Predict the 3D structure of the following.
Amino acid sequence: MLVNHVLFLDGEALVIDKPAGLPVDRPRDGSLSLENHLDGLTFGFKRWPVPVHRLDRDTSGCLLLSRNPKAHAKLQQAFEQGLVRKRYLAVLDGVIGDGVEGASGLIDLALAKVSTVEDGWRMVGDPQAAKGSKPSRTAWRLLSVKDGRSFVEFIPETGRTHQIRVHALEGLGAPVVGDPVYGKGGGQTLLHAAELTIPRAGKEPIVAKAPLPERFVAAGFSEG
C-alpha cells in the first residue's frame, strides 16, 4: 500500500517514496507496476494521479504525480524549464575523489542512446556531443568511503534517461552498486531519489524528502 509512502500532498500534486523494484510504467509481461496502486492514491479525487516524471524500476525515492490535467501541464513545464531541483544518493563500486570526504565536481558529459540486437538499448557518454546526443550535467559530492565503496550525493542539472547511472560509471569511473546494466549487478541497486523541490508561481513550492532506505543502512552507509 503506497498510501503509507506519501511525502507531500495538496490539490495539485502528490509525491510518494517509490519503493525499489516497483516500475513506474507497466512492464510488457503485465506484472505489477505503479498503475496497480493509483486507485489507492486518489485521496477523495475521482481522477487517478499521473506521474510527471520517471524513476527507474530499481531506484527508490521521490516520485511526483499530478492530481489534475492543468497541474500536470504546469509541473511538466517546470521540468522542461530546468526549475526542478533533485538530489540523489548512491553508493558506488569504487573509491572516487581520491577518497577525500567533501570532494566535489561537475560531470559534463552528453548522453546518447545506442542499441544492439544482442544487448538491447543503453545510454552511453558522448564526449564529442555528436548529433543525436543530449547535453547532460551532474554535480557530485563525496560523502564518505567504506570498504572500497563511495557514498555520493548527486544533483543533476539535466534530466536524461539513466543520467546518474552513466555519469557515475563514465564520469567518475565507478558504477552504482547493484546496477544490472552499467555495473556488476547482483544484489540491490543503491540509488535513491532523496529530495525533490519544485517552485510554483503564487503557491508554496513542493518540497519532499524521502528517508534513506534500509538497504543503504545494511550496506553500512548513512547521512550525518
Remarks:
- Residues 31 and 208 are 28 Å apart (CA to CA).
- The chain has a mean pLDDT of 94.
- The helical segments are 69-80, 163-172, 214-218.
